[in-house]
Design goal:
CATH topology of one domain: Four Helix Bundle (Hemerythrin (Met), subunit A)
Number of helices: 9
Largest sheet: 2 strands, antiparallel
CATH architecture of one domain: Up-down Bundle
Strand content: under 5%
CATH class of one domain: Mainly Alpha
Structural class: mainly alpha
Shape: globular
Strand order of the largest sheet: 1-2
Helix content: over 70%
Number of strands: 2
């Protein structure tokens, strides 16, 4: 009896991706790490704006690799760990090297210590994230995400060029304070919105779209100014939520529970 080639039997289960597809997300991760390496090379050469652009490209690639892995069904534990190592290079070591070459070198050993503190806090942040993903809500990050920290330092390099000349003598001190502060925020308990759950976006689609368009227009009009200001706003938002809104909400919850018990 011949097989019916026109109507093959239905296949059960989802077809596994081809082996070559598994390389794609890891290749994007490798490109992200390469951009971090280029940032360090260009920083040593004194090409600071090119080094900043390398960090931005790395952030773009970092946002793509996970999505590509999920869309192609090729997510793996290897990819997760490899992505963390790439993030450490691109957003931990590279920004620290950039800041040291740009301003921190003038502080001598203090500048080296500040740059290393940032890189070490980035490593600790990634290690804590890797071991706590199963027990922490996906709605918030605990501690400033390392890509946000790296992009904040990169945008500050561009933002400092727009400051008035009278503030030029204090730029190096601002850089030192910012590097240390961002490093400590990465290992803090401050909560930052992760944008991984879209309940708010679904509930307020028009408002969310308008906010995104306004932010895009501002960055496009003055990228050197509003790029850093948006990063600073994200950092300040986490501090306000953790130190002001969350304690107030907890107090209201305790009052509601005590009144219900009475």
């Amino acid at each position: 009896m011949e097989k019916n080639v026109d109507n093959p039997a239905p296949q059960t289960g989802r077809r596994k991706p081809r082996r070559g597809v598994y390389v794609l997300p890891n290749l994007i991760t490798s490109l992200s790490m390469f951009m971090g390496f280029l940032c360090m090379v260009w920083a040593v050469q004194g090409r600071m704006e090119a080094a900043v652009c390398a960090i931005f490209l790395s952030a773009l690639l970092d946002g793509m690799d996970g999505k590509v892995a999920r869309l192609t069904g090729t997510a793996s534990e290897f990819g997760v760990q490899y992505d963390s190592l790439a993030d450490l290079v691109a957003f931990g070591v590279a920004p620290a090297m950039l800041m040291w070459q740009w301003q921190l070198e003038s502080f001598g050993r203090v500048g080296v210590a500040a740059a290393f503190l940032y890189a070490a806090c980035g490593a600790l942040r990634l290690a804590r994230f890797n071991v706590s993903t199963a027990v922490v809500s996906k709605r918030f990050f605990i501690g400033l995400p390392i890509p946000a920290g790296g992009c904040t330092l990169a945008t500050f390099v561009l933002f400092a060029g727009m400051l008035p000349a009278v503030l030029a003598p204090v730029v190096s001190w601002l850089c030192l304070i910012l590097v240390v502060a961002i490093g400590l925020l990465m290992v803090s308990k401050v909560r930052y919105f992760s944008f991984k759950e879209y309940d708010f976006l679904r509930a307020h689609p028009i408002r969310s779209l308008v906010c995104a368009l306004v932010a895009l227009a501002l960055v496009y009009s003055q990228p050197r100014i509003f790029g850093f200001l948006l990063c600073a706003l994200y950092i300040a938002g986490g501090l306000v939520y953790t130190l002001v809104i969350l304690p107030r909400r907890n107090r209201q919850l305790l009052r509601a529970l005590s009144s219900s018990d009475d």
